[in-house]
Amino acid sequence: xxxxxxxxxxxxxxxxxxxxxxxxxxxxxxxxxxxxxxxxxxxxxxxxxxxxxxxxxxxxxxxxxxxxxxxxxxxxxxxxxxxxxxxxxxxxxxxxxxxxxxxxxxxxxxxxxxxxxxxxxxxxxxxxxxxxxxxxxxxxxxxxxxxxxxxxxxxxxxxxxxxxxxxxxxxxxxxxxxxxxxxxxxxxxxxxxxxxxxxxxxxxxxxxxxxxxxxxxxxxxxxxxxxxxxxxxxxxxxxxxxxxxxxxxxxxxxxxxxxxxxxxxxxxxxxxxxxxxxxxxxxxxxxxxxxxxxxxxxxxxxxxxxxxxxxxxxxxxxxxxxxxxxxxxxxxxxxxxxxxxxxxxxxxxxxxxxxxxxxxxxxxxxxxxxxxxxxxxxxxxxxxxxxxxxxxxxxxxxxxxxxxxxxxxxxxxxxxxxxxxxxxxxxxxxxxxxxxxxxxxxxxxxxxxxxxxxxxxxxxxxxxxxxxxxxxxxxxxxxxxxxxxxxxxxxxxxxxxxxxxxxxxxxxxxxxxxxxxxxxxxxxxxxxxxxxxxxxxxxxxxxxxxxxxxxxxxxxxxxxxxxxxxxxxxxxxxxxxxxxxxx
Length: 583
Known about the structure:
By secondary structure, this protein is of the alpha+beta class. It is built from 19 helices and 16 strands.
């Protein structure tokens, strides 16, 4: 019988960290970082291992760079990162040095290396790429030496904080499961048009020319120059036609002239009891669109397809906000008319000229004014009391007086009709290969870059810390590490959901509230591993005698099956790709 007093017991929480580590290696991130930044024998850990640790931490709660070592002490580093990786090796200066070397190598170059390796294993020759831009707000002052990173500047703030400097972040995701293909962090005043054209250029050099690529983006993509660049790159595109284009009103008019209701394109049952179905109807039409040839700089007309989509959801949204909109406009008009009414004009013609500029402002109201002539006293030129019997001179002035202010029902009705429609534009003219339903479905997948697989995740609570770094170059490099973490996160989610669809319908995955789902998120999967850990039994000399895994229940085993990760991955030491020259 073994004497327990002669044994030492150590417990290490593992949670989901081995899963992340496994997929970092499956995506080839560590391999590509090692190739880009060859290990230096003077360092006890490689840049690839520093990047892996940052990705692990980003997907597990995020601490500052200076806390990486203490954070790693809370788990089994041998299983997570590999034998020989000790927490004290990952100091803040070591992590900052990795960020500096990533920036020197080139953020685009590193992501291109990883993406090229990923695309090389991907079967199929059709891609849908979803692209968008956002702003990353920064706090504090930043001194940016020449060539040392993007410059924090004031620009159009999508976060509604024009008082803060920002950096502009662009992201292009593979439409299948949201794998980042291209990312950029640029000066804070960079326009969306410039970011779009930069990403088109990079994607053209990244994706094989024989592939069928459809770029999906918001209305900032739609201008003659950018569309010309898209077509020149051999890409297709789907985008929202800006309401400012005359083609938008023309297409809407054609749809409203249809005798019958527009064909149904998509219907989804309401998510809550009693909720209305989510419904889209639409019809596509063809018309010519102005395109600028990027080589000759000449304008030419290209045949394009315009899909007019009717959305009752947009109509309900308009009605819900109509009362506040009318109240806000009415209040603003009264305030401006009050200022206008205090002005004095020499004649009615001057008053009418002044009012003509204001008359263009009311959109949903009818304003009627009248011009009133008044006799007003003129201030005496001389100082002191007037002489006895002296009358104060007067003059006639014209004032603008509000007679009536009421809602313009015709304007409201016209806006009501217009608000329930939006128009998509694409160069996909073949309705057999690309029916209207497919065009709408692809555009609706834009949530990949806007939602929790894109900006919503990147700009969540975990993304606040990069703004505390000293230099914009390190902010940009850490932003690229976040993109790599997003790649791992989205790939795990895509693999799990795809595998779950292949299983019988009664096989589901529990949500965090234990309700069944066929579409678990990565965070949902990670949460199920919260109790998983290892217990190590060793003798007094520190020799490991046994290692046991605990907390792995049926749900965890289902997740391992979906992700094709063996249970032994939580016990076995990961083989390191880099062995330092000195111990």
